[in-house]
Design a protein that fits this description.
The chain is α/β, with parallel strands linked by helices. The protein has helices spanning about 105-120, 135-145, 185-195, 245-250, 250-260, 275-280, 285-320; strands at about 5-15, 20-25, 25-30, 50-55, 60-65, 70-75, 85-90, 95-100, 120-130, 150-155, 175-180, 220, 230. Strand 12 and strand 13 form a beta hairpin. The longest helix has about 35 residues, at about 285-320.
């Protein structure tokens, strides 16, 4: 394809009718080429995408195509409708930031990890505010038990504890996506790494240890060392849909046990020769972990079915709706 008049840019922010791009280290506003409106929703540019653009120094530039993605994070919108929300593209690492207070949730971390693995990024769990916890080692071991694909670090950005461990990720040309609840310490972490206040932070409510939303939309920020950071709005919940491979990767130990069951359709209930039940009885596997695996899998199937149904009706409306 002839791209003589096109330049390669990166999406740093998605606005209502425009896209804010980083083009040769300057910010440019662009609109979409008309053909995008006929394409599937996941073909639309998202923050982190590299796009080909016809640059217009006098006005709006024009996005003509999205370059092939190396990773793509998505989740069900509100976990109720089955409609997918496409979040971030081309992240190398997904930092799952959770503070060691009331914000900590084993269940939520497993969900984030499944989404990250499904999307093709490396999940890195950052246990922030370690200075407020008396038993950090217990939480590290607990998170490590979620999956052997997860990396875990306990830090305190305020006191600089554990920050040196993160230097391996902050390499020029790499992109890090931040996921976590409001007040988990995402902005404080990046400010600490950058050595300057580039991201706004907010105070934590003492009543419930939660923070106010400091990020209201996804945005890509390029640090002076060449690392790109994509911040996302705080999410206290994240649903499962179209993440079968991510769940399998997160619970690879259970998948391996399932392959050893006598029956291929074993439900790990009353069937004889169940390797999963044997692992629970021997202490190799906990009932809580098995239940989490089952629940996430069931939710994934349910939301996937919803999405297919909605997609079918949307296509039918698009085809016939304007004819009536």
């Amino acid at each position: 394809m002839n791209r003589e008049n096109e330049k390669l840019a990166r999406v740093i922010e998605v606005r209502k009718n425009y896209f804010l791009l980083d083009l040769d280290d300057k910010e440019v506003l662009a609109k979409l080429k008309g053909s995008f409106y006929e394409a599937e929703a996941d073909a639309q540019p998202v923050v982190g995408d590299y796009v080909y653009v016809i640059y217009n120094p006098q006005g709006d530039s024009l996005i003509t195509e999205v370059k092939e993605r190396t990773s793509f994070l998505q989740r069900p919108d509100q976990s109720k409708t089955g409609v997918m929300q496409y979040m971030v593209a081309n992240a190398d690492y997904t930092f799952i930031v959770t503070s060691l207070n009331e914000d900590y949730s084993y269940n939520r971390i497993a969900r984030y990890a499944s989404v990250a693995l499904q999307g093709g990024t490396t999940p890195v769990v950052i246990l922030s505010k370690s200075d407020l916890c008396n038993n950090v080692g217990r939480y590290i071991r607990e998170v490590e038990s979620i999956s052997d694909r997860i990396r875990v670090h306990a830090i305190s950005a305020i006191y600089g504890i554990g920050i040196d461990e993160l230097k391996e990720y902050f390499v020029s040309g790499k992109t890090i996506c931040l996921l976590g609840s409001s007040g988990a310490g995402k902005s404080t972490l990046i400010n600490c790494i950058a050595g300057e206040e580039i991201m706004k932070t907010s105070e934590i409510r003492e009543s419930d240890s939660e923070g106010r939303h400091t990020t209201t939309h996804r945005q890509l920020i390029k640090l002076k060392n060449g690392v790109s950071v994509i911040d996302t709005p705080g999410m206290r919940e994240i649903g499962m849909a179209e993440v079968s491979e991510g769940i399998d990767d997160t619970f690879a130990d259970i998948r391996e046990l399932e392959s050893q069951c006598r029956f291929s359709d074993c439900r790990h209930d009353t069937e004889p020769g169940c390797a999963v039940k044997a692992a629970i009885e021997s202490g190799e596997l906990t009932r809580e972990r098995l239940m989490l695996y089952k629940n996430l899998g069931a939710e994934n199937i349910k939301n996937h079915a919803k999405k297919k149904e909605i997609s079918k009706w949307a296509k039918a409306y698009k085809k016939y709706g304007m004819v009536r």
